[in-house]
Amino acid sequence: MWDERYSTDDYLYGTEPNDFLREHAALIGEPPRDVLCLADGEGRNGVYLAGLGHRVTSVDASAVGLKKAARLAEEKGVALTTLHADLTEHEFAAESVDAVVSIFCHVPAAGRPHLHRQVIQALRPGGVLILEAYTPAQVPRDTGGPDTPDRTPTAAELDAAYAELAIELSRECERLVVEGRGHTGPGCVVQFIARKR
Ligand SMILES: C[S@@+](CC[C@H](N)C(=O)[O-])C[C@H]1O[C@@H](n2cnc3c(N)ncnc32)[C@H](O)[C@@H]1O
């Protein structure tokens, strides 16, 4: 499905980073830091962070998306590592990164407990998780996001899954999300930031 969606010359969500990430990227710390960009698709967020000087690995299940991410990195003159993996199964090395960035990573509910555990495992002490995703309230809207609530987390789910981290921000809100052809207007999102103790 995603390979097909990404099989166009343009970038579905544009080439500019997500606003919430841009606003909070400084929390990752002075570059270079090791950063995992989950479900990074065509790479706009990973390439942005690499441009700040971080060592970024973009993970996605779409080979077509990752190829475009690599092309975007090359065009911008930055280094980007790509990893083709299913996040509902993949295991990350323990304490291997300083930040995990998860922007509109919408995997099925059944796979999310595994993913949440992997995020906690991958972070080094002091490492930060920066996450924005659509909530179930977005599903009936036509401005982007999954067409089933099963793929949308809530703040309550994240609060519970990451209770052992220091949660710095956890809120559901509506904001204008305009990102390429894929995200085209007001959206109901959860914004979440937590740091490993
Ligand atoms: C809405 S797009 C967001 C892409 C990117 N984060 C952005 O904001 O531009 C969702 C991405 O999740 C990826 N994805 C969906 N299920 C996945 C899974 N189980 N493992 C890895 N990636 C997955 C898709 O391939 C797609 O690139």
Specify the helix fraction band: 25-40%
Query: What would the principal axes of the Cα set say about the shape?
Result: globular
CATH topology: Rossmann fold
> In terms of per-residue confidence, which ranges show pLDDT below 50 for 5 or more consecutive residues?
none
What is the average of the pLDDT values?
A: 98
Strand element count: 7
Strand content: 25-35%
What binds here, in terms of ligands, is: S-adenosylmethionine
**Major sheet strand order:** 3-2-1-4-5-7-6
Question: How far apart lie the N and C ends?
Answer: 38 Å
- Overall radius of gyration: 15 Å
DSSP helical segment count:
6
Main sheet specs:
7 strands, mixed
Please identify, by name, the CATH architecture. Answer: 3-Layer(aba) Sandwich
The SSE string, one letter per element, is: HHEHEHEEHEHEE
Which class in CATH terms? Answer: Alpha Beta
What is the CATH superfamily label? Vaccinia Virus protein VP39
The chain-level structural class is alpha/beta
Whole-number total of structural domains? 1
